[in-house]
Amino acid sequence: MSAKTNSRLEKILVAGHKAVTSECGPPRGSNPSHIEEKANLIRNHVDAINITDNQTSVTRMCSLAVCIRLKLMGLEPVLQMVTRDRNRIALQSDILGAASYGISNILCLSGDHQSFGDCPTGQNVHDLDSMQLLQTVRLMCDEGKFLGGGDIEHPPKMFSGAAANPFADPYKIRVPRLAKKVACGAQFIQTQCIYNVDKFIDWMGKVCDRGLHEKVFILAGVTPLKSAGMARYMKNRVPGMDVPDEVVKRMAGVSKENQPQEGIDICVETIERLKEVKGVSGFHIMAIEWEEKVPEIVERAGLYPRPQVS
Amino acid sequence: MIVGKQKPIDDIWEMISGYQKVLVFGCNTCVAVCHQGGNKEAEILASLLRMRATQEGAGIQIKNGGIERQCEHEFFESARDDIEWADAVLSLACGVGVQFIAGKYPAKVALPGLDTLFMGDVQAPGLLTEACQGCGKCILHLTAGICPISRCAKRIMNGPCGGSTKGKCEINKELDCAWQLILDRLEALGRLDEYERVIPVKDWSTERAGGPRKLVMDKEAS
Prior knowledge:
Chain A is 38% helix and 15% strand. Chain A contains eleven helices and eight strands. In chain A, strands 1-2-3-4-5-6-7-8 form an eight-stranded parallel β-barrel, surrounded by seven helices. The radius of gyration of chain A is 19 Å and the shape is globular. By secondary structure, chain B is α/β, with parallel strands linked by helices. Chain B folds into two domains: 2-118, Rossmann fold; 136-210, no CATH class. The longest helix of chain B is centred in the first third of the chain and has 18 residues, at 39-56. The radius of gyration of chain B is 22 Å and the shape is elongated. Chains A and B meet through helix 5 and helix 6 of A and loops of B.
């Protein structure tokens, strides 16, 4: 297999390296300096940086603009795109705009419901769903066509990704759902944060049984816990999150000032364990507003230095 | 059927202030089933408004009336005198009925007494749930008879999304995840393998997106 796009992420994965990605959330204002600082903190320790798209439905600087900034800084962005806020015209248009700046990675998502954010009285779009967005990206890239049937003069080249949540309900369709995303054109997957490693390994086994790991690169998602309170919040309040009791207990078992370090330790241990799991092609480290800890996690997990690809 | 909910009495009172003769006008079909807009509810609401008019010394005359359906010409004959009398008709029909009155009686003010909510069913006495959004191109044969357009908060055609937890929707723990229901039903029918069929990009032009819709029946059929 050889890389079909200019994506560094794709090249690293195709070369058989364990990839490392991370993510940064854009600011709630028009000053870009903070997100540039966050990106600079992790630039040498990750292969690509996801830029979230109005995550949790809170209005922020747009993902595309931040991705362009990162690209101009010489970094490798992953453009997150949710189907909540834009119809097929806007989505296709943004894909072309991204491609015009050499942005080569896109992550297709449906997005959290707007009731969680700062505009709960707003309309949602969902003209397409995440799978249909994947199909659209592939149609544009592989066939050089718009959804409306017209030809694209200079088709974009995108490495297309999707999310997978091995912990959401119902469990019985978690692997079929991944198969469906692969059939729709997912080339890489970033999973929900993994705290229940045993359950993830079980899911991954079933993924491999179907041979899906040979068709898509799966990056295991991890998020370091900052405190026992965060662990409890994620366990009880965040839909689709599986934080086992022993993880909460372990966090609560150390003093408050030592909890951040405990969270980092758990994260590093999780990566160490997952490195040995068949089908895991890399890691997606979502250090929520804690980007400065990403280098430590990457180094301690034995994932540094990052491979160079041309 | 169409389901609605009576507006708060203060809102209704504010709406009718300034008129002299108000007809509270029931619609005895859909919105009577949910006990919000039928002829009986019109009678009760008219009494409440008359009491309020007395309390506040407002010079409003309030009558009540009603017909079987406010969305068809033929039912209006029996209400001709009532409507003739009024200068404003507070319709307890859905938005269709209110507009039908506005169109039929250009000299009368038509006011909405209900908030029209959705097309739904009666799951249990007193419990009505949304089940159709009239998208104009039914896909229920692809989704085990459960509609993700009206029953999924993100109208996801290839669900469930990552927010589905223990069979419930991420936006409300009381709300069933439509895709969980679809999967359960596919399984019960022994057709779970159909889950992997991708539902293609939808043509929304038959829905609201395509503009107001019309059905023209040929003469024989009508």
